[in-house]
Write a structure and sequence with these properties.
Layout: H1 2-6, E1 11-13, E2 17-22, E3 25-31, E4 36-42, E5 54-58, E6 70-72, H2 84-91, E7 95-102, E8 105-112, E9 124-128, E10 137-139, H3 151-156, E11 163-170
Parallel strand pairs: 5-6, 9-10
Antiparallel strand pairs: 1-2, 2-3, 4-11, 5-9, 7-8, 7-11
């Protein structure tokens, strides 16, 4: 923390963390408390979750059978709705843990942010195994895609009344 102030670099301070603006973008200097986002979404009869490289959560209420990357609909957040702290952490290249909870079932995986993230889409959040980035991309280099999510969870998400809680947590640098 001292270096940031001594070098008089631009910084962003919140109740959650201190970030400094470096040549390559934002860098997490210190995390005081977990930087998290919790998203509530629901299942849909057309969820198949068979896509091999992406996973999507959408605010849309209806999806077609061809939407094989979508795991949940009617979400309460998209990329544009995330907190500034969370967006800055992602743009610093932070590693995140994604936890999916459906009833008593849980699945977890990891992905990374990037300085190139836009985080502006108002309808969707996409997590990718690749490093492709567009306005819907939340994270890249993910350890899982829709196809890799536990099948018990996906089966439950074929019920439109099934609620899913998606927790996104920024991990401290090691």
């Amino acid at each position: 923390i001292r270096r940031v102030f001594e070098e008089q670099k631009p910084f962003f301070y919140s109740d959650y963390a201190i970030f400094s603006l470096e040549t390559k973008g934002w860098r997490i200097v210190e995390i005081f408390q977990p930087i998290k986002e919790v998203i509530i979404a629901y299942g849909h009869k057309n969820i198949s979750a068979l896509h091999e490289t992406t996973l999507e959560i959408t605010k849309e209420k209806e999806i077609g059978k061809e939407a094989d990357c979508i795991i949940a609909v009617n979400a309460n957040k998209a990329c544009s709705d995330l907190s500034e702290e969370f967006k800055i952490a992602l743009k610093s290249g932070a590693k995140i843990k994604v936890t999916l909870e459906v009833d008593n079932l849980k699945d977890e995986f990891f992905a990374f942010g990037s300085p190139a993230l836009k985080l502006t889409n108002e309808k969707s959040i996409v997590i990718r195994k690749s490093d492709y980035i567009d306005d819907r991309t939340l994270a890249i280099l993910s350890t899982k895609s829709a196809r890799d999510i536990k099948r018990e969870i996906i089966e439950k998400l074929k019920n439109p009344n099934q609620k899913i809680i998606i927790t996104l947590e920024v991990l401290k640098e090691s």
